[in-house]
Amino acid sequence: MQLAGDLTGSGEMVIRGDESGASFSVFRVSNGRVAGVATVDAPREYATAKRLVESRIAVQTNLLADSSTELRSLLSYKVN
């Protein structure tokens, strides 16, 4: 398990992947931005997820939850 940011506090918890499986991530999104992440057996996903936390980029939770969406693509996502 790897952690970045703050998973406590207000906001929406977003699960990416199958939490009953071997590999998944849990994100806390607050005010439309990723405030924290915990990944389980997902080191490659963690590296990008940590960048989402650090950069405070706005994200759509449906894209964040969709494991077919490349996390890297969210780093340049622009919300109108």
What descriptive keywords fit this protein?
single chain, 80 residues, alpha+beta, 28% helix, 31% strand
Word description of this protein:
The protein is α+β, with helices and mostly antiparallel strands. The protein is built from 3 helices and 4 strands, in the order ββββααα. It has helices at residues 43-55, 61-65, 71-74, and strands at 2-5, 12-17, 24-30, 33-40. It has a 4-stranded antiparallel sheet. The chain starts with a strand and ends in a 6-residue tail after the last helix.
Summarize the structure in short.
This protein has 80 residues and is of the alpha+beta class.
Assess the beta-strand content as a share of residues.
25-35%
- What profile does the largest beta sheet have? 4 strands, antiparallel
Share of helix, binned? 25-40%
* Record field, number of beta strands: 4
* Outline: globular
Write down the overall mean pLDDT.
91
Secondary-structure element order, N to C: EEEEHHH
**Secondary structure category:** alpha+beta
For the termini, the CA-CA separation is: 34 Å
Using only C-alpha atoms, the radius of gyration works out to 11 Å
Write the layout of secondary structure elements.
Layout: E1 2-5, E2 12-17, E3 24-30, E4 33-40, H1 43-55, H2 61-65, H3 71-74
